[in-house]
């Protein structure tokens, strides 16, 4: 096992533990969301500064829109967890689908390799994208009791759509990184890069 992969696995375990604690403890949820959204906005702002370093108006517009989006997302999650407990699984599910998509993409991409998916992200392959869908669908049996109002075919379609949006979010941030000529949005998460590298699919899929 390479040192980079080891770091990635350890960081993933820590993040999944944090996600679990956020689900059960409100104060951890509040603090974590504020920190994650703030750091992610800062990382996005840095990308915008590199891409639009000569276009101050565009840079400010994108920074404002991203701040508005992340703030709305953060307060929306806090509102659901505080006042709409019955909807918690509707937030948790997209997050888990996004995580499964990442794992499936990485696993299938490493094993099967194959043709590149797009020029925006050289490491993304068609086999990896298929792996993302497959791993996401594997979550369905664990959630059927929570989404009893949907039949199996509806759940499969919903899950595929969430996975697709998550992959598009990942590709979008990859596209911005290529424009900014950087490998990662940050270096706070060993093996993953920045917070935005980790939640790029999640902030779109939710």
Describe the protein in words.
By secondary structure, this protein is an all-alpha fold. Helix content is 73%, strand content 0%. It contains eight helices and no strands. The protein is globular and about 50 Å long. The mean pLDDT is 89.
Please outline the helices and strands.
Elements: H1 3-24, H2 26-51, H3 56-83, H4 88-112, H5 126-137, H6 152-180, H7 195-199, H8 202-205
Helix pairs in contact: 1-2, 2-3, 2-6, 4-5, 4-6, 5-6
User: What is the total tally of β strands?
Assistant: 0
- What sequence of helices (H) and strands (E) makes up the elements? HHHHHHHH
- Largest beta-sheet characterization: none
Q: Distance between termini?
A: 33 Å
Structural class: mainly alpha
Q: Tell me the strand percentage band.
A: under 5%
Structural features:
single chain; mainly alpha; 8 helices; globular; 206 residues
In short:
The chain has helices at 3-24, 26-51, 56-83, 88-112, 126-137, 152-180, 195-199, 202-205.
